[in-house]
């Protein structure tokens, strides 16, 4: 079948996303408003009968002094990735992007490759011989993912993530940690938490930790903790304006697209986190906490409230986002992996991000710049 790719309206894009069980929060039209340095475009795939059968949010990043762009589809596009005619889906996309002045295309197929349950991850962390999650026997494999990867290579796409990275790619994370919720009661989810998590949740309750929903005006309180977290965990924080823009852009599309939670104790905010919702998929997006009063366990309390709310919303998965692929004690991100494993969920490997050079000279120049910036 031949598909036609062309721009669609925000309303068409949203209607298509709403018809799917889930899609990445980076593939809804409002995500373009979160990224003002990029030009956003909603694209649709139409079949021979003129039906809208796929959609994608494209972000165009201009190259200084050149009217050329990097075209990026984060965690997308939302198409039938298992279709046998994958070339018929991707060729018209590349043709459209090239006509728009793109010299390179980056996309992140939302395709799962492997899963490791919590016991497998815990065993890997405890095994001194295990250095990377990717080298550990998975609990479940998705055979179609390997076929999709082979077809992408044959079509000229290049896997973007280099070997030796910790699983946090330059774009979106290849390894995530998720708690399946579909078909499970909240009691079953609670029983799957490890003993330490259950103990910490009870400890927070006894200490009087209260988790509440916040709003736009509470973002500065979140941000104060976020800056402290960035200093402690050694990452560069985004500006407050980024989170304010995210709230305004997402809320304008759907008032419940983004939520803010704050954990209070004796009048002090100890922990805060943002949550994103698209269909049946709920993400823990950004977290922040202070080093003070850690003994009252605000982080476990806030995550349990968010997990519980995701379950009440009818979510099929609660996604704690990126984890490290490195299992060595020297990696400062291992503590975050241990924390997430305590939820009793599963580590998930995606297909990762893929590049297609429409202009090889400019694409190579971009690779050189990214490697040396």
If you had to describe this structure to a student in words, what would you say it looks like?
It is a single chain. This protein is 36% helix and 26% strand. It is α+β, with helices and mostly antiparallel strands and 373 residues long. The protein has two domains: 4-108 and 353-372, Aminopeptidase (3-Layer(aba) Sandwich); 112-140 and 163-350, Gcn5-related N-acetyltransferase (GNAT) (Aminopeptidase). Strands 7-6-15-9-14-13-12-11-10 form a nine-stranded mixed β-sheet, with helices on both faces. Strands 1-2-3-4-5-16-8 form a seven-stranded mixed β-sheet, sandwiched between helices. Helix 3 (86-99) links the parallel strand 4 (69-73) and strand 5 (102-107). The longest helix is centred in the middle third of the chain and has 15 residues, at 219-233. The chain is globular, with a radius of gyration of 21 Å. The termini are far apart. The model is unreliable at 163-169 (pLDDT under 50).
What assembly state would you assign to the polypeptide chains in this entry? Answer: single chain
- CATH architecture assignment name of the largest domain: 3-Layer(aba) Sandwich
Kindly give the count of domains: 2
Largest sheet: 9 strands, mixed
What series of H and E elements makes up the topology?
EHHEEEHEEHEHEEHHEHHEEEHEHEEH
DSSP helix fraction: 25-40%
Q: Say how many strands there are.
A: 16
Please give the CATH class of the largest domain: Alpha Beta
Based on secondary structure, the structural category is alpha+beta
Strand line-up across the major sheet: 7-6-15-9-14-13-12-11-10
